[in-house]
Amino acid sequence: MKSDVSSRRRAAAQRQVAQSWTPQAEWAPELLKARVYDSILLDIVLCVLAPGSRLDEQDLASRYGAGLAGVREALGRLALEGLVVRRARAGTTVAPLDLLEVRQAVEARRLIEPHCAALAASNAGPEDIARLRAAFDGAEAAIRARDAVALVRMDQTFHEAIAQAGGNLTLARILIPLQHKASRFWVYSMDDDTDENRLAEIHRHLEVVDRIAARDPEGARVAVLRTLGAFVDDANRAVNTPRDDTARAPQTHA
User: Fold this and answer.
1) C-alpha–C-alpha distance, residues 250 and 189, integer Å
2) pLDDT tens figures, 188-204
3) More confident: 252 or 212
4) How far is CA 249 from the centre of its chain?
5) In the prediction, which pLDDT does 17 show?
6) How confident is the model at residue 185 (pLDDT cuts 50, 70, 90)?
7) Where exactly does CATH 1.10.10.10 map onto the chain?
8) For residue 45, what are the CA distances in angstroms to 68, 118, 123?
9) Largest CA distance in the chain
């Protein structure tokens, strides 16, 4: 009995630490610089800030209602995550969409995220499972409306929740930036997919929640691998589909 109580307390403490997964403790979600980071990140994922485009710090400060210091810190964090490129004298640009890079990111996620889901199946508390189940509330309406902003936020919430519920801060710090990179291709593939396929994708994500809630580590691991496999198929199909929007076309490597 004492051992069970200790295990639950340890898991709860791990979850509390993991909920501050950001690289520095001062990146609390309520801080302005964190909100600026989230806003720039979302616009990069949605290609509002197009791949390869130059980012002027003054323009960004005006656009997001922030100070230059907050913008610079946000760009520094995005550079560490590989979403922007900063060069001396050349300034800062949005990183290109690179299929090779995203394939490598997915390969890393295949190693990390299934393990995070398995940990979540062992460690997640009721509040973690509730957050996971709520992540895709309203998803069907968002899919029908082609509301990419809502869908991206749902997807980010879901994968962050898995990382946090696992209780391993180090894995969470690695996983979330990888997911952000993958999100850019997920958005890119939306134009070439049907509503029914998107709904099926949401159901695959919810199957992960069911396995976590059932305390089934191996089932959670397999369910995550299934979602990642579907993502690779979507990305490859999107890249190989001819389109006129050359500004968004991802780079590919042999």
Assistant:
1) 11
2) 777 777 889 889 999 99
3) 212
4) 21
5) 45
6) confident
7) 32-94
8) 22, 28, 31
9) 64
pLDDT band of 12, cuts 50, 70, 90: low
Query: Could you report the per-residue pLDDT of 26-44, keeping only the tens digit for each?
Result: 556 657 788 999 999 999 9
What tokens appear for 26 in the block?
A: 């001062």
What is the CATH number assigned to the segment(s) 32-94? 1.10.10.10
Handedness of CA 224, 225, 226, 230 (dihedral sign): positive
Q: Is the pTM of this model over 0.70?
A: yes
Q: What's the CA gap between 111 and 121, in Å, rounded? A: 17
99-248 CATH pick, 3.40.190.10, 3.30.565.40, 1.20.120.530, 3.90.580.10: 1.20.120.530
Spatial CB neighbours of 203, under 8 Å, sequence gap ≥ 6: none
Q: What is the 3-state secondary structure (H, E, C) of the chain?
A: CHHHHHHHHHHHHHHHHHCCCCCCCCCCCCCHHHHHHHHHHHHHHCCCCCCCCEECHHHHHHHHCCCHHHHHHHHHHHHHCCCEEEECCCEEEECCCEHHHHHHHHHHHHHHHHHHHHHHHHHCCHHHHHHHHHCCCCHHHHHHCCCHHHHHHHHHHHHHHHHHHHCCHHHHHHHHHHHHHHHHHHHHHHCCCCHHHHHHHHHHHHHHHHHHHCCCHHHHHHHHHHHHHHHHHHHHHHHCCCCCCHHHCCECCC
What tens digit of pLDDT does each residue of 55-101 get?
Answer: 999 999 999 999 999 999 999 999 999 999 999 878 999 999 888 88
- Both tokens of residue 16? 């509390």
